[in-house]
Queue: 3 jobs
Job 1
Amino acid sequence: MSDQRRHANEHGKTDKPLPVGQWSHLAATYDNRVMRLYLNGAEVGTLERTGFINPGDNLVVGGHGVGFARARFHGWLDDVRIYRRVLSPADIAALAQTK
Protein backbone atom coordinates (compact mmCIF):
# COMPACT_ATOMS: atom_id res chain seq x y z
CA MET A 1 0.00 0.00 0.00
CA SER A 2 1.40 3.41 -0.93
CA ASP A 3 2.22 6.06 1.69
CA GLN A 4 -0.51 8.24 0.16
CA ARG A 5 -3.13 5.56 0.85
CA ARG A 6 -1.72 4.59 4.24
CA HIS A 7 -1.44 8.15 5.55
CA ALA A 8 -4.69 9.89 4.57
CA ASN A 9 -5.09 12.90 6.83
CA GLU A 10 -7.52 13.18 9.73
CA HIS A 11 -10.43 13.95 7.40
CA GLY A 12 -9.84 10.99 5.10
CA LYS A 13 -8.56 13.06 2.17
CA THR A 14 -6.12 12.00 -0.51
CA ASP A 15 -3.67 13.98 -2.63
CA LYS A 16 -5.03 12.36 -5.80
CA PRO A 17 -6.94 15.14 -7.63
CA LEU A 18 -10.20 14.63 -9.47
CA PRO A 19 -9.77 14.85 -13.23
CA VAL A 20 -11.19 18.07 -14.66
CA GLY A 21 -13.90 17.87 -17.29
CA GLN A 22 -14.72 14.20 -16.90
CA TRP A 23 -16.96 11.96 -14.82
CA SER A 24 -15.47 10.38 -11.69
CA HIS A 25 -16.93 7.76 -9.38
CA LEU A 26 -16.27 8.49 -5.69
CA ALA A 27 -17.10 6.10 -2.87
CA ALA A 28 -16.33 5.99 0.83
CA THR A 29 -16.83 3.24 3.39
CA TYR A 30 -16.51 2.95 7.15
CA ASP A 31 -16.60 -0.31 9.10
CA ASN A 32 -16.24 1.15 12.65
CA ARG A 33 -12.45 0.70 12.29
CA VAL A 34 -11.23 2.15 8.99
CA MET A 35 -12.54 4.83 6.65
CA ARG A 36 -11.71 4.11 3.01
CA LEU A 37 -11.90 6.45 0.03
CA TYR A 38 -12.21 5.14 -3.54
CA LEU A 39 -11.78 6.95 -6.86
CA ASN A 40 -13.06 5.19 -9.99
CA GLY A 41 -13.10 1.85 -8.16
CA ALA A 42 -9.56 2.05 -6.72
CA GLU A 43 -8.80 2.70 -3.06
CA VAL A 44 -6.92 6.01 -2.79
CA GLY A 45 -7.00 6.74 0.94
CA THR A 46 -7.55 5.17 4.34
CA LEU A 47 -7.86 6.47 7.87
CA GLU A 48 -8.07 4.38 11.01
CA ARG A 49 -10.90 5.51 13.28
CA THR A 50 -12.83 3.56 15.88
CA GLY A 51 -16.41 4.00 16.98
CA PHE A 52 -19.80 4.59 15.50
CA ILE A 53 -20.87 7.39 13.18
CA ASN A 54 -23.13 9.96 14.81
CA PRO A 55 -24.90 11.60 11.88
CA GLY A 56 -26.16 14.54 13.95
CA ASP A 57 -28.99 16.72 12.67
CA ASN A 58 -27.65 17.56 9.19
CA LEU A 59 -26.36 15.40 6.38
CA VAL A 60 -24.02 17.32 4.08
CA VAL A 61 -22.92 15.79 0.77
CA GLY A 62 -20.18 17.54 -1.20
CA GLY A 63 -19.10 19.92 1.55
CA HIS A 64 -17.45 20.23 4.92
CA GLY A 65 -20.59 21.20 6.81
CA VAL A 66 -23.48 23.58 7.01
CA GLY A 67 -22.15 27.15 6.91
CA PHE A 68 -18.73 26.24 5.42
CA ALA A 69 -19.15 27.63 1.90
CA ARG A 70 -15.38 27.69 1.29
CA ALA A 71 -15.17 23.91 1.73
CA ARG A 72 -17.93 22.97 -0.71
CA PHE A 73 -17.44 20.89 -3.82
CA HIS A 74 -17.74 22.99 -6.99
CA GLY A 75 -19.15 20.67 -9.64
CA TRP A 76 -22.06 18.32 -10.26
CA LEU A 77 -23.15 15.41 -8.06
CA ASP A 78 -25.23 12.64 -9.59
CA ASP A 79 -26.61 9.36 -8.25
CA VAL A 80 -25.77 9.86 -4.56
CA ARG A 81 -26.36 6.69 -2.53
CA ILE A 82 -26.10 5.80 1.15
CA TYR A 83 -26.07 2.11 2.05
CA ARG A 84 -26.89 0.39 5.34
CA ARG A 85 -23.89 -1.90 4.93
CA VAL A 86 -20.21 -1.57 4.08
CA LEU A 87 -19.67 -2.16 0.38
CA SER A 88 -16.81 -4.48 -0.54
CA PRO A 89 -14.01 -3.32 -2.84
CA ALA A 90 -15.54 -5.56 -5.55
CA ASP A 91 -18.96 -3.89 -5.06
CA ILE A 92 -17.39 -0.46 -5.43
CA ALA A 93 -15.36 -1.46 -8.50
CA ALA A 94 -18.55 -2.76 -10.14
CA LEU A 95 -20.44 0.45 -9.34
CA ALA A 96 -17.58 2.53 -10.75
CA GLN A 97 -17.96 0.72 -14.09
CA THR A 98 -21.69 1.57 -14.26
CA LYS A 99 -22.04 5.01 -15.80
Note: Residues 1-9 have pLDDT under 50 and may be disordered.
Job 2
Amino acid sequence: MRQRKCAFCAADAVERGGEHVWDDWINKALPKTTYRARRRSQDSPLVEYDTDSLNLKLPVVCADCNHGWMSILSSQVKERFGRAMLLAPVNLARFMGSSFLALHMLSEN
Protein backbone atom coordinates (compact mmCIF):
# COMPACT_ATOMS: atom_id res chain seq x y z
CA MET A 1 0.00 0.00 0.00
CA ARG A 2 1.42 3.38 -0.93
CA GLN A 3 2.06 6.02 1.72
CA ARG A 4 -0.48 8.85 1.79
CA LYS A 5 0.74 12.41 1.52
CA CYS A 6 -0.28 15.10 3.98
CA ALA A 7 -3.37 17.01 2.86
CA PHE A 8 -1.53 20.31 3.48
CA CYS A 9 2.12 19.79 2.56
CA ALA A 10 4.42 17.39 0.69
CA ALA A 11 5.33 15.28 3.76
CA ASP A 12 4.02 11.76 4.38
CA ALA A 13 0.84 11.56 6.43
CA VAL A 14 0.98 9.63 9.70
CA GLU A 15 0.35 5.92 9.28
CA ARG A 16 -1.68 5.40 12.47
CA GLY A 17 -4.02 7.58 14.46
CA GLY A 18 -4.24 10.89 12.71
CA GLU A 19 -6.10 14.12 12.99
CA HIS A 20 -9.38 14.35 14.89
CA VAL A 21 -12.18 15.20 12.48
CA TRP A 22 -13.83 17.06 15.38
CA ASP A 23 -11.33 18.47 17.88
CA ASP A 24 -11.39 16.51 21.11
CA TRP A 25 -12.19 19.61 23.21
CA ILE A 26 -15.58 19.71 21.46
CA ASN A 27 -16.46 16.36 23.09
CA LYS A 28 -15.82 17.92 26.48
CA ALA A 29 -17.80 21.07 25.65
CA LEU A 30 -20.90 19.34 24.28
CA PRO A 31 -23.48 17.72 26.56
CA LYS A 32 -23.29 13.94 26.87
CA THR A 33 -25.46 12.32 24.22
CA THR A 34 -25.46 9.54 21.66
CA TYR A 35 -24.58 10.39 18.07
CA ARG A 36 -25.55 8.40 15.00
CA ALA A 37 -22.42 8.09 12.88
CA ARG A 38 -21.69 6.71 9.43
CA ARG A 39 -18.46 5.38 8.04
CA ARG A 40 -17.44 3.92 4.71
CA SER A 41 -14.10 2.63 3.57
CA GLN A 42 -13.00 1.85 0.05
CA ASP A 43 -13.47 -1.88 0.65
CA SER A 44 -16.76 -1.93 2.58
CA PRO A 45 -20.29 -0.56 2.38
CA LEU A 46 -21.64 2.28 4.48
CA VAL A 47 -21.86 1.32 8.16
CA GLU A 48 -24.04 3.20 10.65
CA TYR A 49 -23.39 3.01 14.37
CA ASP A 50 -24.07 4.81 17.65
CA THR A 51 -21.25 6.54 19.51
CA ASP A 52 -21.04 8.67 22.63
CA SER A 53 -18.29 10.92 21.30
CA LEU A 54 -17.07 12.52 18.10
CA ASN A 55 -13.66 10.84 18.12
CA LEU A 56 -13.00 9.80 14.54
CA LYS A 57 -9.38 10.25 13.46
CA LEU A 58 -8.10 10.05 9.90
CA PRO A 59 -4.45 9.58 8.89
CA VAL A 60 -4.49 12.39 6.34
CA VAL A 61 -1.99 14.89 7.78
CA CYS A 62 1.65 14.76 8.83
CA ALA A 63 2.76 15.07 12.43
CA ASP A 64 4.33 18.51 11.84
CA CYS A 65 1.09 20.01 10.46
CA ASN A 66 -1.04 18.27 13.10
CA HIS A 67 1.08 19.39 16.04
CA GLY A 68 2.12 22.72 14.53
CA TRP A 69 -0.16 25.20 12.79
CA MET A 70 -3.27 22.99 13.09
CA SER A 71 -2.82 22.81 16.87
CA ILE A 72 -2.44 26.58 17.07
CA LEU A 73 -5.58 27.06 14.97
CA SER A 74 -7.51 24.62 17.16
CA SER A 75 -6.43 26.46 20.32
CA GLN A 76 -7.56 29.77 18.86
CA VAL A 77 -10.96 28.37 17.85
CA LYS A 78 -11.41 26.84 21.30
CA GLU A 79 -10.47 30.12 22.95
CA ARG A 80 -12.99 32.09 20.89
CA PHE A 81 -15.88 29.62 20.66
CA GLY A 82 -15.43 27.07 23.45
CA ARG A 83 -17.19 29.11 26.13
CA ALA A 84 -20.01 30.06 23.73
CA MET A 85 -20.68 26.37 23.11
CA LEU A 86 -21.28 25.90 26.83
CA LEU A 87 -23.68 28.86 27.01
CA ALA A 88 -25.89 28.14 23.99
CA PRO A 89 -27.14 24.97 22.32
CA VAL A 90 -25.12 23.89 19.29
CA ASN A 91 -26.70 22.30 16.24
CA LEU A 92 -23.97 20.25 14.61
CA ALA A 93 -26.25 19.40 11.69
CA ARG A 94 -25.53 22.86 10.24
CA PHE A 95 -21.88 21.94 9.88
CA MET A 96 -22.18 18.29 8.92
CA GLY A 97 -22.55 18.71 5.15
CA SER A 98 -19.29 20.57 4.66
CA SER A 99 -17.48 18.32 7.16
CA PHE A 100 -18.58 15.13 5.44
CA LEU A 101 -17.64 16.55 2.05
CA ALA A 102 -14.15 17.38 3.35
CA LEU A 103 -13.85 13.95 4.98
CA HIS A 104 -14.90 12.23 1.79
CA MET A 105 -12.37 14.15 -0.25
CA LEU A 106 -9.56 13.45 2.21
CA SER A 107 -10.37 9.78 2.67
CA GLU A 108 -10.44 9.07 -1.07
CA ASN A 109 -6.78 10.08 -1.58
Note: Residues 19-31+57-107 form one domain.
Job 3
Amino acid sequence: MKTANYNIRLDPDIKAKAEKTFAVFGLNLSEAINVFLHAAILRRGFPFELCEPRLGLDVLQAMEETDANARDLRQEILDDEDRDFPV
Protein backbone atom coordinates (compact mmCIF):
# COMPACT_ATOMS: atom_id res chain seq x y z
CA MET A 1 0.00 0.00 0.00
CA LYS A 2 1.32 3.43 -0.96
CA THR A 3 1.37 6.08 1.74
CA ALA A 4 1.52 9.86 1.81
CA ASN A 5 3.01 11.98 4.56
CA TYR A 6 1.06 14.78 6.23
CA ASN A 7 2.47 16.84 9.10
CA ILE A 8 0.18 18.28 11.76
CA ARG A 9 0.82 20.40 14.82
CA LEU A 10 -0.64 19.09 18.06
CA ASP A 11 -0.69 20.23 21.63
CA PRO A 12 1.88 17.90 23.29
CA ASP A 13 -0.51 17.06 26.14
CA ILE A 14 -3.35 16.18 23.72
CA LYS A 15 -0.95 14.07 21.64
CA ALA A 16 0.20 12.12 24.70
CA LYS A 17 -3.37 11.55 25.89
CA ALA A 18 -4.47 10.44 22.41
CA GLU A 19 -1.54 8.02 22.10
CA LYS A 20 -2.43 6.50 25.47
CA THR A 21 -6.11 6.26 24.52
CA PHE A 22 -5.50 4.56 21.17
CA ALA A 23 -2.81 2.24 22.55
CA VAL A 24 -5.61 0.46 24.43
CA PHE A 25 -6.94 -0.55 20.99
CA GLY A 26 -3.48 -1.53 19.73
CA LEU A 27 -3.27 1.56 17.49
CA ASN A 28 -0.60 4.19 17.19
CA LEU A 29 -1.61 7.78 16.44
CA SER A 30 -1.08 7.42 12.70
CA GLU A 31 -3.30 4.33 12.56
CA ALA A 32 -5.98 6.05 14.64
CA ILE A 33 -5.98 9.05 12.31
CA ASN A 34 -6.39 6.68 9.36
CA VAL A 35 -9.38 5.05 11.08
CA PHE A 36 -10.89 8.51 11.62
CA LEU A 37 -10.37 9.48 7.97
CA HIS A 38 -11.86 6.21 6.66
CA ALA A 39 -14.91 6.67 8.90
CA ALA A 40 -15.27 10.28 7.73
CA ILE A 41 -15.16 9.17 4.08
CA LEU A 42 -17.78 6.45 4.68
CA ARG A 43 -20.11 8.90 6.43
CA ARG A 44 -19.27 11.76 4.06
CA GLY A 45 -18.58 13.97 7.04
CA PHE A 46 -17.46 13.78 10.62
CA PRO A 47 -17.90 10.30 12.08
CA PHE A 48 -19.56 11.83 15.13
CA GLU A 49 -22.10 14.54 15.89
CA LEU A 50 -20.81 18.08 16.22
CA CYS A 51 -22.63 20.28 18.68
CA GLU A 52 -22.11 23.35 20.80
CA PRO A 53 -20.09 22.66 23.91
CA ARG A 54 -22.20 22.64 27.02
CA LEU A 55 -20.89 24.79 29.80
CA GLY A 56 -21.20 23.80 33.41
CA LEU A 57 -23.38 25.75 35.82
CA ASP A 58 -20.30 27.12 37.59
CA VAL A 59 -18.96 28.53 34.31
CA LEU A 60 -22.32 30.08 33.41
CA GLN A 61 -22.58 31.68 36.86
CA ALA A 62 -19.04 33.06 36.58
CA MET A 63 -19.88 34.52 33.15
CA GLU A 64 -23.01 36.18 34.54
CA GLU A 65 -21.04 37.58 37.48
CA THR A 66 -18.38 38.94 35.11
CA ASP A 67 -21.08 40.60 32.98
CA ALA A 68 -22.65 42.15 36.08
CA ASN A 69 -19.26 43.43 37.27
CA ALA A 70 -18.57 44.93 33.85
CA ARG A 71 -21.97 46.69 33.86
CA ASP A 72 -21.30 48.09 37.35
CA LEU A 73 -17.84 49.30 36.34
CA ARG A 74 -19.22 50.88 33.17
CA GLN A 75 -21.85 52.72 35.22
CA GLU A 76 -19.22 53.94 37.71
CA ILE A 77 -17.15 55.32 34.85
CA LEU A 78 -20.17 57.07 33.37
CA ASP A 79 -21.09 58.52 36.79
CA ASP A 80 -17.51 59.79 37.26
CA GLU A 81 -17.56 61.40 33.80
CA ASP A 82 -20.85 63.15 34.63
CA ARG A 83 -19.31 64.62 37.80
CA ASP A 84 -16.14 65.72 35.99
CA PHE A 85 -17.93 67.18 32.98
CA PRO A 86 -21.25 68.75 34.01
CA VAL A 87 -23.43 69.79 31.10
Note: Residues 73 and 82 are 14 Å apart (CA to CA).
